[in-house]
Amino acid sequence: xxxxxxxxxxxPRRRSSVFRLGFLAAAVLTFVTLYQIETYKEEVASPRxxxxxxxxxxxxxxxxxxxDFYSRSHSDRFVPGTRPxxxxxxxxxxxxxxxxxVINGGELLLDxxxxxxxxxxxxxxIRSYKQLHVIDADGAWVTxxxxxxxxxxxxxxxxxxxxxxxxxxxxxxxxxxxxxxxGLNTHDDSYRTTIAxxxxxxxxxxxxxxxxxxxxxxxxxxxxxxxxxxxxxLEPPFNINTSFPDTGARPRWRHLKQACGENPSGVxxxxxxxxxxxxxxxxxxxxxxxxxxxxxxSKLLQGERNIGDFPESLxxxxxxxxxxxxxxxxxxxxxxxxxxxxxxxxxxxxxxxxAVHHASEAYLVPDLLKTGYGHPPAVALFATDARYKREAxxxxxxxxxxxxxxxxxxxxxxxxxxxxxxxxxxxxxxxxYYGMPYNLAMASVMSTPAxxxxxxxxxxxxxxxxxxxxxxxxxxxxxxxxTPTHVFIDGISQLKxxxxxxxxxxxxxxxxxxxxxxxxxxxxxxxxxxxxxxKKRTSGFVLFRNVKSLYVHEEDGSVAREVSLMRDDGTLGVxxxxxxxxxxxxxxxCAEFVSGVDAADTIxxxxxxxxxxxxxxxxxxxxxxxxSEPSTKDGVVTDPLTASVPRIAGGDDALVHASDGLQFGGxxxxxxxxxxxxSAITAPIHxxxxxxxxxxxxxxxxxxxxxxxxxxxxxxxHMSISHFGTPSxxxxxxxxxxxxxxxxxxxxxxxxxxxxxGRVPLVVEAHSADIIATLIELKREVEQKLGTTIKxxxxxxxxxHLLAPELSANGVGVIMNPARAxxxxxxxxxxxxxxxxxxxxxxxxxxxxxxxxxxxxxxAWDARNARFDxxxxxxxxxxxxxxxxxxxxxxTNVEELLTGSVASAQRDLVATRGGDMFDMSSRVVAVVxxxxxxxxxx
Length: 938
Ligand SMILES: *[C@@H]1O[C@H](CO)[C@@H](O)[C@H](O)[C@H]1NC(C)=O
Ligand SMILES: *[C@@H]1O[C@H](CO)[C@@H](O)[C@H](O)[C@H]1NC(C)=O
Ligand SMILES: *[C@@H]1O[C@H](CO)[C@@H](O)[C@H](O)[C@H]1NC(C)=O
Ligand SMILES: *[C@@H]1O[C@H](CO)[C@@H](O)[C@H](O)[C@H]1NC(C)=O
Fold this sequence. Notes:
Oligomer: single chain
Number of helices: 25
Number of domains: 4
CATH superfamily of the largest domain: Metal-dependent hydrolases
Largest sheet: 9 strands, mixed
Bound molecules: 2-acetamido-2-deoxy-beta-D-glucopyranose
């Protein structure tokens, strides 16, 4: 009982004439079929004949939910014994009405795995329950469970272990017969963390190493009592084995993964031309099989006999189903050249593409997408994850809004573990921040993926008769840091005791966001490469009006103190800058300073603020432009532990200076600069133990000879202790001990002497608590033997929280990198996940123990998000950290931990309009650089 509403999803329990016509047609068809079967039975009555006839009818039936789907009394995934739940007084985002419908004071009755009733639940019905778990939402937001339509969860393990990498077969460019289900591991740390982010359903796709990589499966993420992969499947296709149903059931949607461009090319040394030929050859095989099946069925149903066996092909049957329109085809496809190939393929073989994934340039060619067979594909995107390879170089944070403006469906996806799917909602928040309408941003991780997957008859919306997959949030879902307080999957509560602190009332409202219209236009106009340089650099007077607060640096050192410029009567202050120097006053008292500077550039900050310039660490910012393109990078350091360094380059004593390889003006650098990250500290790119000397440099400078471009050419000595690419951990530690205790010659000898004297910090990437503990002991040993104090900073530090008191007692600082840890590898597995799974976050735990903490990123594109990372850390700390401490996480602390001190007199200030660094309502409009004696107007 369903029909399509204006947004294109199914509306249950409402009959319409269209539906009735459909029902009539189905009834006639069934009758005719039964009649024919009866006739044949009389004729031959062979079981194989009956099976073939049923099979032929099945082939002709379109995929989708049964017409009487909503007459189900319980979900097929219902677990008997599940406690019925009544939610009272919720603010329900239903997904209906194009994502604009919100029910205030809404109620939900969850039972039998379904949303049995919603809105105002009938009191009679409530009284009929003896036991009802009642949750008073007290006005909290409730949404459908999040749906991730691109994940490798379960197939690519977290933590990654060699024994569980089942997402990419490299047996050939075409492996359409493979199935992600067959590699789906039920033991993965991410199930729990991803559910904690409100994700309830995921499409597990094979990897992108192949042109056609295999079949994908939708799963629900909860554990099942069967503990099997099969029991996790959501509406698995009947074709999961070769038994074909003869029950008259409608086929269920299937899913296929394809990939264009670089990934399959790289694995098979193909060109794009080879890839497309592989596609066409495969579909041509499938076409032949389909045609012989059709011919067989046509003869059979016309009464011909002795026509041989049904032309079965286990190898090609999934592509035959694509040609029959029963498969949602998902294609990893980035650029116009690939999208064009794909649209031609879809027309040549006459099948629609459900979605193009990653599709970093789709926003430049919306009309090309519209040429696809049947309907334009939806586009599944990252928000700001970009430029990691050539295909992604022209990605834009404005793509979601631009595509939406062209009427293309946009879903945000994680590509887990590429992005931690726990934070898929954050992708939607960023899309919204950069201008995607709020209703579509919400839908992009809930209703839209449900529609694209053909599952919108049961998930992705809050509706009577839908699966009981709902999430209750501690804030508006589009507010940064939104955290689930309850997650239900199939009506089963997933968070035993959610640790969530109450947030201020303002968090319950849809956050205001800045106006990026002109930026979005420029992104399209410049084909993804809009100019990012400041509009103007001035050393003249610049006047900032309506300033709420300003950070000033203490003369003596690292701390930046926030000074409010707002007076009791609510009037805001002014900040006047000349040659990069600052005078700040409440507006009225700055008059003498302001007078006579008529020529000043005046900027209204609309209640904004001036905060310290943020400092990025962890990515090869300044050493690489496109990570997978060697010719855009400085390159990788030779590690003397695994290879021999030429004697002419210094042999074992060589220690590379990142400063010597710096590249300025890169897009990630400039995007970070425009987001308030004014400098970076980058270590030489290394894959193993041996790093080198990091450099601290300005992200806004055009080249190294500009004033203030290189802030500190030799910042700290970097090494990594990890399980990857180098001899044993004990060998690495032993080598480090030797370097610290015995004098060496050459460059390395000189810099380790500086480390011994405590003049430059030793910065060691280490994740496991065991390695970190060994480093602490090593520090003690060295200090005892030499009678000095060395500065040690640990980066990465996924498990550092386990040693918070010891780190504190030994004066070891930590850079959490990434800011929200993830169990990438065994050495990261003991993360402290933070709310809602644990009360404390890793950062707040370390800070509580007085450990100096900074936050970093892993990849250059992510540098721009530092302000969101620090705001998030602050929200998660729930009052145990001051704003000032949070601000220091991505600014002064990073500088102190990596260079040994803070160049306080030379700090940059960043001006935000419409709010401060913590607010989604603000954007960065200017950078005040004391170093360069100038203000950059962005
Ligand atoms: C859905 O919302 C978007 C954005 O607000 C709007 O552009 C579009 O026209 C709406 N679609 C319908 C069918 O109302
Ligand atoms: C529902 O929650 C809101 C927000 O907390 C509250 O103001 C209101 O009184 C509640 N209504 C009922 C009926 O409990
Ligand atoms: C084939 O799969 C269906 C589910 O689609 C299942 O009901 C049936 O038992 C399976 N048959 C065999 C032989 O495994
Ligand atoms: C952290 O430092 C504060 C202030 O110096 C002190 O009161 C507190 O006891 C310290 N906490 C720990 C766990 O060391």
